[in-house]
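Model it.
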Amino acid sequence: MAQDNTVQSVERAIKILEELAGEKEGLGVTELSHRVNLHKSTVYRMLTTLLNLGYVEQNIATERYRLGMKLLFLGGAILERMDIRHEAHDSLEELSEIVNEAVHLVVPDGFRAIYIDKLDSNKTIRMYSQIGRKAPLHASAVGKAILAFSGEDFVNEVIERGLFKYTSKTITDPQILLRHLKMIREQGYAVDDEENEEGIRCVGAPVFDYTGKVIGAISVSGPTVTVLQERVENIAKYVMDCAKKISLRMGWKMQ
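Modeled.
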């Protein structure tokens, strides 16, 4: 029985942290108890424990709780293991300076892609994206870049799981997606033309390792008012060049 209680407590604590992760301004005990479907007293006790450990912090004025700085230590330890992030960063900075738009690096995470690095532009309009956020494989430039160079079985499994419609421009027809992926393989880059978020256009390219396996993707993203259609082809050249540099650093051999 004690073991079951311990597991349940861990699950509850993780749910609380996950809810807080999506709220920049934090949450109060009452709102948090509703979201995780637990009694206020239970949530309060768990928050007190997490607060003492440094995994959450409290704004005294608002009495709201938010994630604590100690979680950066855990997240940083994971990111430090990810060599692709280390090897890619200088190239991403160079790309960011050239295009002056948001630049992202992602790696596959199951049936999605997860952002592991991001560089913002110096423009007033900023991209709403963050490290740790996930992107759909069929409806994002980075996702389609990965999917286009993945195995047939994996592509079919992604299709079988359903092609969710995020915007009016999301590709939801399997045959159209397959033709689209073929085009991406031929041209070497993918474009998300408001398929994941309205008003956002992205250009992505795949990153490969020493075995030739696709292990990630990079992208240049921005509002459609700055990433204009007529800029896409030019941006794509820089994105592909950057992805190639990162791939070479990861041991990929040009054919």
